[in-house]
């Protein structure tokens, strides 16, 4: 019955929400996928669409509350409804694939991959936040991400959910009761979850002594998102000079590299006039600590449109390399449909369209001991974009850096979900990750996905630690891009076979009589 299907989908959406950081009940991701599989098995396409849409609303609406922290409720609700359209399409597709009434776990998992891929690239470049794989940072399944990447990890989560749904069907549905098959499906789900524990997560490598600075924001900044220009930069230069004093006194280890977050310099250091205030403050701090400093800044570079940048400065030399963010966040760093969006929030025109970069996010940083380390960069939401991180690794990144702000999103779960994505990326690519935020949560992450020296939200802090540099390539780098195409091929083949089978049944043979 339709009400039962919709109730099941609603519970599945709540389960998916609770699987993510903030609640941290990662097994519920499998339960949520299984709930949608059961809700759509034997359903009409219309019922599948409704079930998927309801699941999406129950999942994304509370997950994205942080989107309305400053923009207000209408953009948040619009974002939630638009995001729910993707699970709606998934529900309709599952209904087509499961017309016979039996759950089809593998095809259902492939359909989940297609839904997540669609969210990752559409509309306006996509917004792949809340993918199934990013709920599994504390799960035994996490080890599999180094083999099949985030898309493949999502497939395994959905496959486990489908197996749970098969077990429920075989044990609870009188029309399909089969104790042996039901228990077998549940055992297969358990084996699927536990098997990745056997996948090694190596953490060896030459150590790099890192200092990551979390400066926090002025007290009234959280209400106005404005401050006297130079306030943020002053915090970071002061904390870096304090670090230099501690190093000189022997109370802190000498850092190989110092990392500041996105937007740490709120003065443009690349202005045509040389922006002496910004340049002098930055180079003064760099020279004081006598180590390279890699920092985030926004610059108009002499034009009218801004760029979101990461800059590297060397002691005694000044500015060395520049990375311009490639994958801009829709509605955050550029505003699609601006005339329409003005009806949703007065904040729309506070967002200026940024100019995207074109080069892969890597910078080479020469160290005091003669080594040169290649850092892979993913600014803020770029960490959830597969090509951004994979391309950096393919270009030889030995350590990944995720400079971010998080100041726009208040005290909800966004920051916890953000650093969880960095943890998953660490295991996926076998790289240490420095996740450094203006307001938190920051952390030093080893290649096994473990956070060291984590911070709290809205605090000043300094993270210090030695992280291993690694250059080995995981299988995920090669296999991950193939997961979505193979899933698409499986789904299309199943639909074609289903269509041909229906035609064969409905077309009666013609007999010729004499």
Structure description:
It is a single chain. The protein is an alpha/beta fold. The protein has helices at about 1-20, 30-40, 45-65, 75-95, 105-120, 145-170, 180-195, 220-225, 230-250, 275-290, 340, 385-395, 415-430, 475-505, and strands spanning about 205-215, 255-260, 295-300, 305-315, 320-325, 360-365, 370-375, 400-405, 435, 445, 450, 460-470. The strands form 2 sheets. A 6-stranded mixed beta sheet has the order 5-4-3-2-1-12. Strands 6-7-8-9-10-11 form a 6-stranded mixed beta sheet. Helix 3 (about 45-65) packs antiparallel against helix 4. The longest helix has about 30 residues, at about 475-505. The protein is globular, with a radius of gyration of 25 Å. The termini are far apart. The model has no long low-confidence stretch (mean pLDDT about 90).
Largest sheet: spatial strand order: 5-4-3-2-1-12
Oligomerization: single chain
Structural class by secondary-structure content: alpha/beta
Mean pLDDT: 92
Radius of gyration: 25 Å
Shape: globular
Helical proportion, percent range? 40-55%
User: Helix and strand string, N-terminal first?
Assistant: HHHHHHHEHHEHEEEHEEHEHEEEEH
How many separate helices? 14
Strand content: 5-15%
Calculate the terminal CA-CA distance, rounded to whole Å. Answer: 51 Å
Biggest β-sheet description: 6 strands, mixed
> How many distinct beta strands?
12
Which descriptors apply to this entry?
514 residues, alpha/beta, six-stranded mixed sheet, 14 helices, 46% helix
